[in-house]
Amino acid sequence: MTARTVRRMGDPVLMQRAREVAAFDTPELKLLVGDLFDTMAAENGAGLAAPQIGVALRVIVFGVAANPRYPEAEPVPTTVLVNPDMEPIGDGVEDGWEGCLSVPGLRGLVPRYTHIRYSGYSVAGARIKHEARGFHARVFQHEFDHLNGILYPMRLRDLTAFGFEDVLFPGQRFSD
Ligand code: NI
Fold first, then answer.
1. pLDDT at 121
2. How far is the CA of 59 from the centre of ligand 1 (A)?
3. Residue 119 C-alpha to ligand 1 middle, in angstroms?
4. pTM reported for the whole predicted model
């Protein structure tokens, strides 16, 4: 497994709809997931989507224990989702600060559904269904967006709440 180079905003692979994974439990899929976790760990990310390492497939990983990039965030279970989908539960939306390893050094205030139901498959092809709120729901929605060519700056409603993290949050240390 290898930490791969994270593609940055402007790269066409980040702007396209990623393809469904057709075959489960393959060496290629296991290698991809391993590389996603290694890259996420190397960059202290809360999550990572396959297009961010240049692979246009519908695979995301996420998980937050104690993350220096999100010092206030509640923990999120370590999760792999292949071919994920989601639906909001209710219409509650809240703003929260987000960053992205593909948009290094910046933060923006992004509206997300507060309560969602998501689904997908494990690497082995087992069906996964989960309900999530708050930061967990936010992390899923951010990574899911990557599979549809959407980066968080495209979701900003107020461009005055978008800037460099060391300017917005002086004194806090971020890894990217
Ligand atoms: Ni991102």
1. 98
2. 13
3. 19
4. 0.94
**What ranges do the domains of the chain cover?**
12-168
In this prediction, residue 111 carries a pLDDT of 98
Which DSSP letter does residue 104 get? T
Q: Return the DSSP state at 160.
A: G
Residues of the chain with pLDDT under 50: 175-176
H or E element that contains 62: strand 59-64
How far apart are the CA of 90 and the centre of ligand 1, in A? Answer: 25
Write out pLDDT tens, residues 4-18: 999 999 999 999 999
pLDDT at residue number 66: 67
Concerning whether 20 is annotated as a catalytic residue, the answer is no
Residue pointed to by tokens 């469904």: 20
Question: What would the CATH number be for the domain defined by 12-168?
Answer: 3.90.45.10
Q: Which of 28, 74, 98, 143 is catalytic?
A: 143
Give the pLDDT of residue 69.
65
